[in-house]
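Propose amino acids for all 427 sites.
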């Protein structure tokens, strides 16, 4: 049995005299905010009584969040997740800024809580049936039937977590020593059930070769044979029928069309001031906002983009959830390509409201005026807040989501039983 620690135990007791929390480093404060976001999310899921399970990387939760928070729900509950995350956003003062559908049954959400010029991000990655490249590998209904309570949340049965994690690493063609250690620990916990899971997708001969590699954690062998394991995995008997696979292809085409029509990337212009001011703000914005996008790029000063090729490339980047930051001397823009928001340096002072529009009087693209005489940190804080606010509003409009009017009171998980699970890094 392992007892779950509280946030106060993990990050230090509050000093009653000073009112500060120790340690007081910026990194520790960001980690603490991420942990609080995760706790609020889990409490909200438990309160809503949505059957779910976290899929991997949860051993250190809530204090240690190494990467995305992968979790699974039943397909019928998928539409409840975005409104639930809006409740979490309201409760924590952390807007929901992204919802990227990267598979027909998977959505990558991002919550962002700003603290000065820094931002704490939480990345809940919701899956229904586990699919990759459109193909079904694990059915949510079967996994959720055997889920187990762990700390204050639910996790898969060990054999299901083993199959999910092994399949995921082979499909991605990437694995680290820590990840192989985790897979080995899961296998050794329930070797018979895990061996049965291996034989679902790989032959008896491959299974016999793979088991000692997992137990011995032979990372060199594993990396060398990843392509062969992937080839056999893809050649295995599909979980779905021919008819279901045909319907899935139609759903995948519709998803791709939706991504094109409603891109989740963003174009930001940094204008005015000196070349050094533009370069410094662009670099600082890129670093601060990077976790809110799949990719980021800062365009060179000479890049114009006012052409059919430039406009197409700009749109494709946004479809691929890319933050595109363009530096330019003046805020004027060509008719083919418009940045969605922008910031312009001036020595006339800072405007509290959005300034004159980009691209002429008929444009809806606003430009915020920044005081070039102020320190970079102040301008970065304002620019970050405006960008996150814009992303949150854009997301609500795209998904037709209303701001939450009330918060469901969170309730405990009930019987908080923990199971013995292997160690090792995840993700």
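Proposal:
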């Amino acid at each position: 049995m392992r007892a779950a620690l509280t946030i106060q135990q993990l990050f230090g007791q509050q000093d009653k005299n000073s009112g500060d929390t120790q340690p007081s480093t910026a990194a520790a404060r960001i980690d603490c905010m991420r942990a609080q976001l995760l706790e609020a999310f889990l409490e909200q899921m438990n309160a809503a009584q949505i059957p779910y399970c976290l899929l991997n990387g949860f051993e250190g939760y809530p204090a240690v969040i190494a990467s995305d928070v992968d979790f699974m729900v039943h397909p019928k509950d998928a539409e409840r997740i975005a409104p639930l995350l809006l409740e979490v956003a309201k409760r924590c003062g952390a807007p929901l800024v992204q919802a990227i559908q990267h598979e027909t049954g998977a959505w990558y959400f991002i919550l962002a809580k700003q603290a000065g010029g820094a931002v704490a991000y939480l990345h809940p990655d919701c899956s229904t049936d586990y699919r990759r490249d459109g193909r079904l590998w694990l059915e949510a209904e079967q996994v959720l039937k055997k889920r187990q309570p762990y700390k204050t949340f639910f996790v898969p049965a060990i054999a299901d977590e083993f199959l999910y994690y092994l399949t995921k690493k082979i499909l991605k063609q990437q694995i680290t020593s820590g990840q192989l250690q985790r897979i080995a620990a899961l296998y050794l916990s329930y070797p018979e059930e895990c061996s049965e899971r291996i034989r679902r997708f790989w032959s008896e001969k491959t299974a016999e070769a793979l088991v000692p590699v997992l137990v011995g954690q032979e990372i060199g062998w594993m990396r060398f044979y990843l392509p062969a394991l992937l080839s056999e995995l893809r050649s295995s008997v599909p979980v779905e029928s021919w008819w279901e696979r045909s319907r899935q292809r139609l759903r995948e085409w519709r998803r791709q069309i939706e991504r094109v029509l409603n891109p989740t990337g963003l174009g930001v212009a940094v204008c005015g001031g000196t070349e050094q001011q533009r370069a410094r703000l662009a670099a600082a914005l890129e670093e601060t906002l990077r976790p809110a996008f799949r990719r980021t790029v800062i365009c060179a000063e000479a890049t114009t983009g006012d052409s059919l090729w430039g406009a197409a490339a700009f749109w494709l980047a946004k479809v691929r959830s890319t933050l595109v930051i363009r530096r330019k001397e003046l805020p004027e823009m060509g008719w083919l390509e418009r940045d969605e928001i922008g910031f312009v340096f001036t020595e006339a002072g800072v405007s509290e409201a959005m300034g004159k529009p980009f691209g002429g009087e008929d444009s809806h693209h606003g430009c915020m005026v920044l005081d070039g005489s102020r320190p970079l940190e102040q301008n970065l804080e304002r620019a970050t807040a405006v960008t996150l606010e814009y992303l949150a509003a854009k997301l609500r409009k795209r998904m037709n989501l209303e701001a939450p009017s009330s918060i469901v009171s969170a309730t405990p998980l009930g019987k908080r039983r923990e199971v013995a699970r292997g160690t090792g890094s995840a993700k």
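Residues 1-23, 348-365, 404-427 have pLDDT under 50 and may be disordered. The radius of gyration is 24 Å.
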